[in-house]
Please model this.
Amino acid sequence: MDRKAKGQAYESDAERFLRRHGLRSRAANVRFRHGELDLVMDHGEILVFVEVRYRQHQSFGGATLSVGRHKQQRLARAAASYLAQHPSLAMRACRFDVVAFEGDHIEWIRDAFRLDSA
Model:
């Protein structure tokens, strides 16, 4: 399986996982000039931007640590663009989550970072 297909498979797995935990899908693979949002979901009244990461093993920090400051900034800019395209959502509370796959283990990190730290 090539890298793109593998990424799409993990994003689908993450979406199913989150739906089982009460989130509702809004959009997937939303691309902007300065970044991409893997998943956009609703968790009650909260708009959730989800980054999906996969690593075969934890070398170099693993999947969760691969969402560093630069990646956070790109996600924040993409989220701002998404909100600009959907002004009716602009007043909703938002958060950034990470769903990390490491081997066969899945970890959901709610509120993984905040805009003031990105």
In short: The mean pLDDT is 87. The radius of gyration is 14 Å. The CA atoms of residues 47 and 94 lie 5 Å apart. DSSP finds three helices and five strands in the chain.
